[in-house]
Specification:
- The complex is a heterodimer.
- Chain A is mainly α.
- Helix content of chain A is about 70%, strand content about 0%.
- Chain A is globular.
- By secondary structure, chain B is an all-alpha fold.
- Among the domains of chain B are: about 50 residues; about 60 residues, no CATH class; about 160 residues, no CATH class; about 120 residues, no CATH class.
- Chain B is built from 34 helices and four strands.
- In chain B, the strands form two sheets. Chain B has a two-stranded antiparallel ribbon. Chain B has a two-stranded antiparallel ribbon with strand order 2-3.
- In chain B, helix 21 packs parallel to helix 25 and helix 32 crosses helix 33.
- The radius of gyration of chain B is 43 Å and the shape is elongated.
- In chain B, about 50% of the residues are buried.
- Classes of the chains: A mainly alpha, B mainly alpha.
- The interface between A and B is large, with 94 and 80 residues.
């Protein structure tokens, strides 16, 4: 009892010091996570279409490199941070740097479905983030790459939870690439035209089915984004806008081909997005 | 002022704390990196005009500039004409669009996140103004983590690991008992050598082993001595067994063993049995036996993967039973190269693997099986080959497993009740191995038979009756093993069933039934040839007659314990003179005539109570009456008949004297 009483002040002091000193890595990772997240979204802090991708990626990328150099043996920590770093570079269209970081990731050290999926598709994501913003139609080689991307995304999506964030994200990238393929296709023969129409309908249907067929559908049908009380969560709001924009994009492309397909599911066909 | 001792203690604690906080810091940092959301915007998609749009636009251009001079399209006019009408190629069409119609070439932009931000700003300006809220909209959650252990679990394990490491270095902080320090040190030395931070399985192993061993240590702390040769032998055997399996499977194998329920009991048994009773010299031999046994288990698991769970739970029980047998039968079991104990253990586990019903066997039953089998081997070492012979062991183990697995039996009896019966039964076999050397299927005959016939009676008193019947039968068998020859178990089963039905029909109360069964099981031993061979129905008829009388006009006299005593005495009388009775009274009318005799006897007793006799002498008087009747000395069964009256008076006076 006496020993314990005498030791108590020392132990408390040590605990305080150990506690402060002991969470240095955690604090650094917290900063990195916050910085990378802010950098990812930085272009969207400006009004749309005025957004420009700047150099917001540089500081977080360097910070991650420094931390990784400090803890090379902490494999899980290192590899998940690498994914974060590589994805940031991908979004900022830093192709070579992104590729270098993706290649450094040891996939057997990744443990979450998000990071495993991103790593599985990284070659196509790097390509797509760079290519998506370019108007030029896809050439034959790019068409092949885009088709391969669709296959890889389909394969990867099978292994993630239905309706999870990563599922919807990968599905959205897939729908974008499929739209670009259709938009840039040769429709000079009736056979080609029929195939493009079929692909458009199938891709949009697959995308629509990622969402809740009751709540999300009702929301889009009734255009409830004008009613703030209906906001379930900001993320859902974002996903619903995505879906509506994608339906619009697909229908517009079909119209520009002079097609009048029957869209699926029925509610998409009946939806007036103009 | 702090003493040097206190300062030393403080430094050790500080070291431990710093180590712990560092490890926790890394784990929490990893958690952040793995689990925190990632903000990912989707790209804007720039879509060129579609092929029909470009062809239409370029056709219009050709038409609008047809008469211009000079021609603004120059040499390109022919090329455009060709690509528009003859061989449309999107890349070429787009090049011409960029050159001559650059504004239309821009096509359109699909901007999902741009549209989102616009709508968000318009519809929810307050929220959109907050950068933190905006960021959350872009979150992509980490989703499932494919590892089995979440971070809370890992953090808890890390604390345990560090404490274990800390404890290994500073065991004196936890306990001043040197014996405990030695044992914990022993397990840490063998299991803690690998880096417990690296693999989940090793960490689990250490945690499970520590917890189980410490519990075992503390439970048995009174029994063991400072010298821990036996505990060393156990841990060495485990370490040897681990080293014998392929490197990739070592941790899994050992984790399985240590996680099984048998391990804590095993440690306790080692400390209690080995330290208290066994000679330290035997520890080394036992280590070899245990290591061989564990290697056999590993091989068996490889061959029969479905058997793995059972073995993980019960290997400790089997080894524990081996140790107990060793304590009982001496080091001869393990001394030479062909160690008997090892042979029994390996054979038992081989048998269990082949038996689908073995999953119903409890830890106690398994211990009992090994002890009984080792007992049989120890009693007749010359019969080792025969006993270990597959058929003997198969019959013995199957007899137990099939009995406890019976569906009707499991519905009627509680798990605890069944286990208790099996434990008692196997305990008797271990004490009297001669019973199973001759008849390895005895469990099925006796326990299985009794339980089945009582189950059929569907009485609420099933467990008490079974316990009385089996308990009584075991005593009788132990005293007179030759009873087995006379199909004694079958008789006990039949009588137990009959008594069960009487209870179910409310002709007997539970207490009476239990006493009667105890009496019934003991009686055949007095004259086994009569009860079990000459006329197998004799005991049942006697019970039938006595119970029938107890329900008749004079039944009040046979209330409570008197009924049991009367039955016991009458059965003894029948045992003595049953042969004569069968000669003088046809078997078909035996029960009826005996009932009439007892009815007449009770009628007389009612009149003579308080005159010639008291109630305590009733069993003896009725018993003597039955003996006289058996010998043919009673011609009339009329209670008012002069001869009968005279005989009864004589018997009553004689009993009173």
């Amino acid at each position: 009892m006496n020993i314990a009483r005498r030791l108590m002040p020392c132990l408390l002091a040590v605990l305080l010091i150990a506690g402060l000193a002991g969470c240095a890595t955690k604090q650094e990772v917290t900063h990195i996570v916050a910085d990378t997240n802010a950098a990812f979204v930085s272009p969207y802090l400006e009004a749309p279409k005025t957004a420009r991708k700047g150099n917001a990626w540089k500081e977080p990328v360097e910070r991650i490199d420094r931390l990784i150099a400090q803890y090379p043996d902490q494999k899980k920590l290192v590899n998940h941070l690498r994914v974060r770093q590589a994805m940031l570079l991908t979004v900022y269209e830093q192709g070579n740097l992104a590729e270098e970081r993706w290649k450094a990731v040891e996939d057997n050290e990744l443990t979450t479905e998000r990071d495993q999926s991103l790593h599985a598709c990284w070659r196509y994501l790097v390509w797509w983030y760079k290519r998506a913003g370019i108007f030029d139609p896809l050439d034959a080689k790019e068409m092949q790459k885009a088709e391969k991307a669709l296959s890889k995304l389909d394969e990867t999506m099978k292994n993630v939870g239905q309706g999870s964030d990563i599922h919807i994200y990968l599905g959205t990238i897939r729908a974008q690439i499929a739209l670009k393929i259709a938009n840039d296709s040769d429709v000079s023969t009736p056979e080609n035209e029929a195939q493009v129409q079929k692909n458009l309908v199938a891709s949009l249907e697959a995308y629509a089915l990622l969402f809740d067929q009751q709540e999300d559908k009702d929301w889009i049908e009734n255009n409830k984004n004008t009613d703030g009380r209906e906001l379930r969560s900001i993320k859902d709001f974002r996903y619903r806008i995505w879906l509506r924009e994608m339906i619009k994009g697909y229908k517009e492309t079909a119209r520009s081909f002079g097609m009048q397909p029957i869209w699926k599911p029925d509610w998409v066909n009946n939806l007036n997005v103009d | 002022m702090l003493s040097a001792e206190s300062v030393g203690l403080a430094i050790k604690i500080v070291n431990g704390l710093i180590k712990l906080t560092k490890r926790l810091d890394l784990i929490i940092a990893e958690k952040e990196a793995v689990e925190e959301p990632l903000v990912i915007p989707v790209p804007d998609v720039s879509l060129a005009p579609t092929q029909p749009q470009m062809r239409k636009a370029l056709r219009k251009l050709l038409k609008d500039t047809k008469n211009d001079d000079p021609d603004p399209l120059g040499d390109d006019r022919e090329k455009i004409l060709k690509v528009v009408d003859v061989q449309p190629q999107n890349i070429v069409l787009f090049d011409f669009m960029q050159t001559y119609l650059p504004e239309q070439a821009l096509g359109r932009v699909l901007s999902p996140d741009g549209a989102f931000m616009t709508a968000f700003r318009e519809q929810h300006p307050d929220m959109a103004a907050d950068p933190d809220v905006r960021v959350t909209a872009f979150y992509v959650g980490a989703g499932r983590d494919f590892r089995n252990k979440n971070y809370t679990w890992r953090i808890a394990l890390t604390v345990v690991d560090v404490l274990a490491e800390f404890g290994g270095e500073n065991m004196a902080l936890f306990t001043c008992d040197e014996r405990v320090q030695k044992i914990v040190g022993a397990i840490l030395k063998r299991f803690g050598e690998t880096d417990v931070q690296k693999t989940d399985s090793t960490r689990e192993l250490l945690r499970a082993a520590l917890r189980a061993t410490l519990n075992g240590v503390f439970n048995a702390r009174e029994a063991f001595e400072a010298d821990s040769k036996w505990i060393d032998a156990l841990f060495d055997a485990l370490a040897n067994a681990r080293d014998a399996v392929p490197v990739a499977q070592r941790d899994d194998f050992l984790v399985g063993l240590v996680r099984g329920e048998g391990y804590p009991l095993l440690v306790g048994a080692f400390l209690e049995t080995a330290a208290g009773i066994l000679n330290d010299d035997a520890a080394e031999d036992f280590k070899d036996v245990a290591a061989h046994f564990l290697n056999e288990i590993a091989a068996l698991i490889k061959k029969e993967p479905t058997f793995e769970d059972f073995l993980q739970d019960h290997w400790g029980d089997l080894l524990r039973a081996g140790l107990k047998s060793l304590a009982k039968h001496g080091p001869a079991l393990i001394e030479d190269e062909s160690a008997l104990l090892e042979k029994v253990l390996v054979s038992v586990v081989g048998e269990l693997a082949n038996l689908p019903d073995s999953k119903f066997l409890s830890s106690d039953a398994l211990v009992g099986i090994v002890e009984a089998a080792v007992g049989a081997v120890a009693a007749s070492p010359e019969l080792i080959k025969e006993i270990i012979d597959q058929k003997w062991l198969t019959k013995f183990i199957e007899s137990i497993a099939v009995t406890v697995a019976g569906e009707g039996i499991r519905k009627t009896f509680t798990q605890e009740g069944l286990e208790s019966l099996v434990r008692d039964l196997l305990g008797t076999f271990a004490e009297h191995p001669e019973l199973i050397i001759e008849e390895p299927g005895l469990t099925r005959q006796l326990l299985g038979g009794v339980l089945a016939s009582i189950s059929e009676a569907k009485t609420f008193a099933a467990e008490a009756l079974a316990s009385a019947a089996v308990g009584g039968a075991l005593i009788a068998l132990a005293e007179n093993p030759s009873l087995i020859k006379f199909e004694y178990p079958r008789l006990v089963a039949a009588l137990a069933g009959k008594i069960g039905i009487l209870v179910q029909e409310k002709k007997l109360i539970q207490v009476q039934a239990v006493d009667i069964l105890a009496a019934l099981t003991a009686t055949p031993a007095e004259n086994p040839a009569l009860f079990l061979d000459v006329e197998k129905g004799l005991a049942a008829w006697t019970v039938e007659a006595v119970v029938a009388v107890s329900e008749g006009n004079h039944g009040d006299l046979l209330a409570g314990l008197t009924l049991t005593r009367v039955l016991h005495e009458i059965l003894s009388a029948i045992a003595q003179s049953g042969k004569a009775a069968l000669k003088n009274h046809p078997a078909a009318q035996f029960a009826e005539q005996l009932e009439n005799l007892l009815e007449a006897g009770l009628s007389r007793a009612e009149k003579e109570l308080g005159n010639l006799m008291g109630l305590p002498s009733l069993p003896a008087v009725l018993s003597d009456l039955v003996t006289a009747w058996a010998r043919g000395e009673i011609a009339s069964l009329d209670p008012d008949n002069d001869n009968f009256r005279r005989l009864f008076s004589e018997l009553a006076e004689s009993a009173a004297a």
